[in-house]
Amino acid sequence: MMSTRRSAGLPYLVVALLKAETTNFRDRRIFNLLPTTMARLIQIAKSDRTTAHRQNEFRNQVHALNIIRAVMRDKALIE
Predict the structure, then answer these.
(1) Contact 20, 7 (CB under 8 A)
(2) d(Cα 22, Cα 18) in Å, to the nearest integer?
């Protein structure tokens, strides 16, 4: 059962997009978006900016962490 409380389902949307993007190449799954998406999410999660938009930055970090969590829990993406 999926819980939509954390980030209102946004992590599951990203997981669905990443899973839809996979292609099979000689029985081997190839992910083109996964490495760049994860790199960007980690960059957002690690950001430590002290700007006027601090609260929005914190929300972005929380969303990024929730998306990373959902990706790591999805068996099809981590295999």
Answers:
(1) no
(2) 7
Residue type (1 letter), 5: R
C-alpha to C-alpha distance for 62 and 47, rounded to whole angstroms: 11
Element holding 29 (H helix, E strand) = strand 29-30
Digit-coded pLDDT (tens) for 38-60: 999 999 998 876 654 666 677 88
* HEC secondary structure over 41-53: HHHHHHCCCCCCC
Interatomic CA distance for residues 2 and 34, integer angstroms: 21
Amino acid making up residue 75: K
Structure tokens at 79: 């295999």
Low-confidence ranges of the chain (pLDDT < 50): 1, 52
Is the pTM for the entire model greater than 0.85? no
For residue 73, give both structure tokens.
Answer: 């829990």
pLDDT of residue 77: 84
